[in-house]
Amino acid sequence: MSVKAFKLVSAVEREMLMGDKNYINIECIECCGKNLYIGTNDCFIYHFLLDEKVSTAGKISFGATKQLHKYLGLKKPVSELKAASALTRLLVLCDNTITLVNMINLEPVPTGARIKGAVTFTLNENPVSGDPFCVEVCIISVKRRTIQMFMVFEDRVQIVKEVFTPEQPCAVAVDGYYLCLALTTQYIILNYNTGVSQDLFPYCSDERRPIVKRIGRQEFLLAGPGGLGMFATVDGISQRAPVHWSENVIGAALCFPYVVALDDEFITVHSMLDQQQKQTLPFKEGHILQDFEGKVIVATNKGVYILVPLPLEKQIQDLLASHRVEEALVLAKGARRNIPKEKFQVMYKRILQQAGFIQFAQLQFLEAKELFR
């Protein structure tokens, strides 16, 4: 049964990006606060400011104001963008080279600092260096079966470690010293400090795109066999039951308590609390789904959209109105980490009371008694 957990809202329409130039496609996106960056197939970066508006009826919409765009001077697509806001730098991957550019004016850093030979890259959101003026970058190198770790400063880069993998890596996520890797035939956890690795489960990267996503401290979300979204810790165990995706998931994101997945026809929303599918949104031609500081963004080749979460209290009330007491209570308990303690306690008492009356009206007196207690 469905819950209305998210609403899909347009953020950047195609005319704003490409006008009448049909050949322009969106390759990658990055969002940092109100700053939205878009990389295109014709080697441009666009910078927009996102403005969230709430109507008197509580409807949320987004306005995007274009700041500037910059041509990187190559005939190659911009394949990845990552913001390092502490350094006011944007890391741009184009033609296997990561360039550092200023987040405001999109100009390359004067020193020309760059990382060459990168197939793909990610940032370590749980860094080990302890230096606030540095970001840790992990790249899959163009060298076969090689991962490299770098420290990136405002105007220079420094290689820290080179690690060799048993098979060719095709996707990576990092947490502290731990790398979660999709190799050609399996997922593994690798500690790049000690070199100790642990097999997770088999996976064929030739058949479908692997997904490796850090979702919290020492925990990852992976696209497993049989269309399962699998959770794994750095110890190689799963503390949560898997969620059932379609076989051809393209991307996944986390917006607690939900896991959001994109395939070629739909956006699906599963609860991490009871693993049930809660919502399905038709969405054709999507090829990017990412979360940025809690904001979930999806994109087609031509437009960018934001998945706006409905307030958890509203979702709980909708469930109670449909007499789905168990689901409402599971969601209410899960909301604890998102709501201040005192406010949560008041809200939770009220929900228990409402749930008790619903059970009472359905003549489930024992259940009602427990809830009233």
From TrEMBL:
Entry-linked Pfam families: CNH
Highest taxon above the source species: Eukaryota
InterPro entries associated with the record: CNH_dom, Vam6/VPS39/TRAP1
UniProt domain CNH: residue ranges: 23-296
Gene Ontology CC annotation, any one: membrane
Keywords noted in UniProt: Cytoplasm, Protein transport, Transport
An annotated GO BP: autophagy
Subcellular location per the Swiss-Prot or TrEMBL entry: Cytoplasm
Family annotation (PANTHER family): CNH DOMAIN CONTAINING, TRANSFORMING GROWTH FACTOR-BETA RECEPTOR-ASSOCIATED PROTEIN 1
Name of the molecule in the record: TGFA1 protein
